[in-house]
Amino acid sequence: MKQSKKPIIYWILQDNQVTPLIADFLELMKHRVNNFTTIKYLIPSHNSDTLKTAAKLNPDSFKMSSSIKPNSYEGFSIKKNLIGDHEFSEGLAFWRTLLLDDLGSGNLFRAQIHHEVEPNTRAIVLQIPTPLGSSASEERVFYAWVYLAKQANIPVFGYELLPLDTRWTLAPSLLDGVITTDYDSYRHLTQNKTNMKNNIWLVPRYEGRFFSPGCPPLWRNGLGVAYKYQKELKIDFEKTIIYIPHNVAMTYEYKNLVSHLKCFSDKIHLMFCIGKDQVRGTYKHNEIIEIISKQDLKKISHSFHDLNMPWEMTIADCVAACSSCYATSISINNNIPTIIYDPMISPSKRNAKQSFNSIADFQNCINEVILSHKKRTEFAKIFSQIINKKPV
Predict the structure, then answer these.
(1) How many Cα atoms occupy the beta-carbon half-sphere of 45 within 13 Å?
(2) What is the pTM of this model?
């Protein structure tokens, strides 16, 4: 095995965790963090199809063996001894609940990972199983790696592929940190009642959506766009990104919209959607915007983007518009927060769309988006924190 001089992160993958799209994202992620860590993808040797799908990641395979104690009183006794005297707040001993499960005599497994862990391995990352979506094999691999990590004193982190806003929090609670891809899961796990005392992260949508089994085409086309513009346009993604589908037919209205956003000038970046055919006289679309909103844009970071590339809106925290339009139809259907300010219509809220006719309400909504943005952390930054052992 070739030794890496940089800190290593093991990322464990299994059968239901790799699609061609996820493989593309993981390949991009590997290159993105290559300056400070080496990600090594590991796949069980019995997952032959996954090894083929993830071939571009150059994964290592590992073997796992399982010992089993079939239905027996011995299995019940072992479980009871492991549980000990712990009980529910009402006084019911945990072990007594085994009597409801075939008298507690269900199969008892012990799985063991056969893989040499390199000395400079700083973390192990793996998908968190859930009872309603993970196979017994996946669960065994998960618990075996968690056990191995604890024995080797290596931090172990789990990420969300299937929803984590469920009643089952045992698996997440075994980890040193949880990476969520959905805000509902993040909110659920950070509530006090779940008693989660480890680090909980929420990744941006332009990363988290790739881990959805139903990732739609718009997001697929947006793969890597955020990283591209961080590098090429120097867009500061510490700021809240607002996508504005500007139209010259509403130049006055969008001038007002920008002026209503200037109070957030140090916290936001504006992505103006422009078209080559939207001209007035000798002025191009971007020139019209810069002239009309010159004073406000002096204080606000902004950039211009082709309306024929709507997938670029996937890197935004929200879409802000003066009217429902082509771009807002796309954003709403892709569950991107869409905020419309129009003093001529009645306020409404439905799915991802909110409409306001009050400046104060519009600004309050933008402020909520900014607060939500602050809770999101890119994978690269999470891994940097892990490598440098910095808490959230």
Answers:
(1) 8
(2) 0.88
